[in-house]
């Protein structure tokens, strides 16, 4: 085996094994039954502070409302996409939280039949022995009913992968994400009022990794190797995780609404609500494909620009100059700003030419993705450029010229008050003497390439709601 082949095998193996814990835990033998796995939210529920008083709740049917069948490559099967045991999972989550006393309602007819059998048996025994029998204790009744269910299961919300192959050696990885959504609501049995509704979604990840080698290593000697694995997140565990998160949310939102309270009250309630509201604000600012969003909180901004102008005129040499400007920007809508700026430009054309200018501009800026942390923008408008100083021996005619400009850039969110941005713009004037040379019919124009800091300030918006 030559050196290239050995390197290819090592690279393929490293590519496959990096971060692939499942590869080293392959099932080689039968496994005994085991206690069910915990989800990431199970321990959180178990660690919740104790309530002041447990709430008796009834769950008649927390079911699959999607009607979704399991998808396969060529269609679907008659197997449902999600587990039909959501009621049992919800009851388990209620028990784990220690905030609720769940009572049997899913199979209430079975319970009532069994109680009737007990009564009949006791009556028969009493008739035969002539000894009185104790009455059955009354059934618990629920003060709150929990309703809802699995409302959606979306397959292939996002798919993708990557791969590489070189001289017959290579590997690839693929992934797929599904999404499950549930609603859970608490209903008062005394008046039928819906006390609180919560909504939770959970993604379900599937991954496939493989590596292969196909190579002639010698005359009539072929080396062929292939390995890989696929890992699918169990739908049942994903649903359990979502249900437990819904129970946690219901407890804390119930505390916030004054429906119930923790045993310690005051400070404990506040800690729970503060942590939950911080998490909720972050989650509500995140779109479906994990796109982080930043609400627009301020209406005004100062923008400090630093740039290098390049004069595109009649001079043969086109060199970078220096410049800067300060602008005031006003938010018109989430997608549009109006800005007014005043700038300074020191333009050059090799060693033989330099000149200083001032410029003023009024621009309309369009924000393509206003709530994203990394967002492109475009802008355009008009203004003036005028010279402020000439070197000795150069043309001393004063220049004042209208101009039009347009540009594009990328804005990066740093904090609530500060953004960082880079941009490039083109400025078209109505004069041919920016470089002290009149030649041809075309007017002079110049480019600006630069970066900026945007400081946002002013009255904080009350309703910075994301509408993407």
From TrEMBL:
Presence of keyword Mitochondrion: no
Keywords of the record: Cell membrane, Lipoprotein, Membrane, Palmitate, Signal
SUPFAM superfamilies xrefs: OMPA-like
Matches recorded under InterPro entries: Curli_assmbl/transp-comp_CsgG, OMP/PagP_B-barrel
Residues of the signal peptide: 1-22
A Gene Ontology cellular-component term: outer membrane-bounded periplasmic space
Highest rank taxon of the organism: Bacteria
Record's keyword annotation contains Hydrolase: no
Name of protein: Curli production assembly/transport component CsgG
Origin species: Arenibacter nanhaiticus
Lineage: Bacteria, Pseudomonadati, Bacteroidota, Flavobacteriia, Flavobacteriales
